Amino acid sequence: MNYFLTEEQEMIRDLAARIAKEKVAPVALEYDEKGIFPRDIVELMAKADLFRVFIPEEYDGLGGGIMEMSLVVEELSKACGGIALAYAASGLGTIPIMLFGSEEQKKKYLPRLAAGEILAAFALTEPEAGSDAAAVKTKAYPEGDNYVLNGTKQWITNGGEAFIYTVIALTDPTRGPRGASAVLVEKDTPGFEFGKKEDKMGIRASVTRELIFNDCKVPKTNLLGREGAGFLVAMKTFDKTRPGVAAQALGIAQGALDKAVDYSRERKQFGKPISAFQGIQFMLADMATQVEAARALTYAAARTIDAGAKNVSRVSAMAKVFASDTAMRVTTDAVQIYGGYGYMKEYPVEKMMRDAKITQIYEGTNQIQREIIGLQLIKESLQKKE
Amino acid sequence: MAEPIQIIVDKCVGCGLCIKVCAYDAVSLVDKKAVLNERCTVCGACVSACKYDAIVIERRPFKGQEVEEYSGICLFAEHRHGALSSVVYEIIGASRELKASLGKKISAILLGDKVRDMAEELVSYGVDEVWMMEDPAIGDFNEEIQADLVAKILLDKKPEIFLGGGTIIGRSLLPRVAARILTGLTADCTELMIDGENKLLRQTRPAFGGNIMATILCNSHRPQMATVRHKVMKAAESLGSHDGKIVELSYPILKPRVEVLEFVREEMDTVNLADADFIVSGGRGLKDPKNFALIEELAKAIGGAVGASRAAVDAGWIPYSHQVGQTGKTVNPTIYVACGISGAIQHLAGMKSSDIIVAINNDPGAPIFNVAHFGIVGSLFDVVPELVKQIQG
Amino acid sequence: MKIVICIKQVPDTTNVRINPETNTLMREGVESIINPFDMYALEEGIRLKEQHGGSVIALSMGPPQVESALREAISLGVDEAILLSDRAFAGADTLATGYTLARGIKKIGKVDVILMGRQAIDGDTGQVGPGVAENLGLPHVTEIRKIEQIDEDGTIVVERLLEDGYVRLKSKLPILLTVVKEINEPRLPSLKGKMAAKKAEIKNWDHQDIDLDPQRIGLTGSPTQVMKIFTPPKPSGGKIFEGDVGQAVTDLLAELRSAGIPIGQQKEEG
User: Fold this and answer.
1) For the domain A7-119, what is the CATH code?
2) What does the buried/exposed string (b/e) look like for C47-62 if buried means 16 or more CB atoms within 10 Å of the residue's CB?
3) Is the pTM of this model over 0.80?
4) Using CB atoms, which chains have 3+ pairs under 8 A with A?
5) Please, what's the largest Cα pairwise distance for chain B?
6) Binary contact (A48, C190; C-beta < 8 A)
7) Contacts of C171 in chain B (CB under 8 A)
8) Substitution target from B231, B255, B269 for chain C, most C beta carbons within 10 A
9) ipTM, 2 dp
10) For the segment B148-170, what is each residue's pLDDT rounded down to a tens digit?
11) Under 8 Å between Cβ of B30 and B12
């Protein structure tokens, strides 16, 4: 299907596809099995200028937007959703700086992020604060010229590998969620440590760690935006990065679909390839249609955001929820088409099914996404009446 | 300047065969006539393919040597570590056949330090005249020194044909000589014959990675030079005694700019499976891990990589990196030799695009024989050692 | 340091197939690529510049579409690209090609290192490198698997592959080297490189732009000519040998050799 990409977008997509095929695919199964962080591939992506794609030109980026970032994430995810996440999660950690950073902060971090010299991460989730993000307890109390951080963040992607962390913490304990702020913390700041690496069901090449803050002092100049704007930073960031998660899910789904189609042509039962049976053809048809719909929705959301639309929460939530649910369905069906072989670790699809699951959970569970969409619909309906 | 290649419109019937054979997308049909575009590299494939002689290439090469002054078949006697390179015997074999067609003498150029023994050996193989230059200053092989000497000898002795080995040395030396004396050179010939009519050397060799064969002529330049592909032509047998002579030559030896520091011998390590041109694989039929030594030996003999079926890998006989098949590597070699492999679909998925599949299995009903181009039904424990023996000669 | 890399645009012969019925080349979907061995030369040349400073020029001879190959070279990091293009250059055999490229390099001026891949995957001859060196009066070494070092005074030490090992050689620049795959791992293009390549100006030189003897170029400059092109007889499927092992093996080897397979050849591939 023609999505009317510009020449530059095609160039970006083709290079990402090449890296996926030549560099990511050969190591995907091994890195997943052993839980190896793809440092070597991150370096390759950096040399290829992939990290520049969504960063403004004045900070050494190529001036593209969410659409370009999504194209990269999608292509990489076709080969491995876990390895793609190292890139996507750094995007998640870069966007708050792009949206809310001061000129100094942008100049300090964005060029290095664009060069892929350093990675970023975003830290909101805590043991007691998942969907109920407002329940964060991590403190960042002001003390002289600094904020002092105390508390734990959980399940932070790129934890330990990233250099710069956007941490949502309470700078004012008296105002509830309105007391939360976004603070930039650099790795190796005294009092900032990492917990053990999590042993996950899927996306095992991606590294997930606890962040532990113990009287960690950061200068007040590390505040991102205003005090009290923590959740605004988070929400505005997620609005923009949901298409990236959708793109990851989309890539995983497409990768699984492609493998399922190829396998169905080679596997012979009852004297013919199983692709000759309508049962399989119908499954593949439904899988392909859903993937295409997910793609159309993801690209539309990305383009809407890049066009500068004011209110993008609904459309970006729709892309995320639909693409991730699609990925779960499609990868499960892919395993089914592979039959017994699909269940074996030697064959690639069980990994894709394990990888797909997280896309329904993180960056806002699909239940939260549905709540966002529902509330937004009601709001729009109310506004029409007025 | 006239177009080098032209379509004779009256002869063209619009069959489109030229389009099918063109690898450069340079031909198309316009109003049922073939038309060439600027992508054409004048490779000549369409000229060859056209059944109606409707495509011609105008050739008027620059003035060559005086053809009548050149006579005889000359070969470059490449040697290393004190012995003639094995390709030389194959070239001698080819030269003897050319001699039978042309009725001309065979000569050899032998350059080096202390090479007289080899000169005598060349004579015993049927070389009529060895043009030998012995000098320690010639030393190890050096392109500059030897290209200079060979060019001078060829200009003085004027053989009509000059052959060298398609070895690293030969493929480096002969082009330099050809560029110095301004004549044609064809690389890696697999067949050499004398054309019955014009007595020219017909040089046949593979191109396009072996997908096509081309027959080349060098009409008006001498000597007609060619390198001979190693291990294709049959090696000559010694004649015992032969009435040939050794002529000692002397020329000034130039001082080369390139200097040899040291030679380091290296066993060819395991060739990368994905790139390998030749692969020998072992399967369940090997019965025991130590028998992989047989596979390795055959692989070494043909200069190939070692592969394995999943059964062998699962049994722990060889690491997973050697596994060929659906869940292993997909390979695309010129030859794939499957030893003791039954040919399950998952294995075939990894190797079925090999150019030539050779199967060795003692079960005549093994499915591998359905896809193999050649097979030997027999015990691999007998067949593989015999293959190694006959290949190593 | 001034480095010139000669590249050739070739059809991707690894994907070429023969139609089994008509026994003709099926060229559908066969794309034009930079000769794979030249990719290693490009990588090495760019690395030399990164190490020693200077500039890297990519040079090619061919029809106008070869510009796309030169743009690809620029996207990898080459500074300048020159295309020798003229109908008069067409139909050149390796002698004429070596001459033409050499005259082009002469026009570029003083050069320190000339690099190219060991052979092109369409012609498979490996003859152009030595020819260029001879025409320029420079030393050459083929099958380079490593450039160990280049000193300030222009001394270069290289490792050259041989069938049974390798030899270490020392020389003074300028020199021409042909490289094998073992020498490095070619990089991927970068997005910035690709954008620069799109805008880059590729110099086009025809036979009048270069100081050369028109008798030595193109068809006129080619002593060899192709008499005939044919597809090799594919060994017919399914020939099974049984019985006496010795005889079976002899027959098998004879079949393979008559199909032109160099069985027993060592280190064929670079």
Assistant:
1) 1.10.540.10
2) bbbeeeeeebbbbbbb
3) yes
4) B, C
5) 70
6) yes
7) 257-259
8) B231
9) 0.89
10) 999 999 999 999 999 999 999 99
11) no
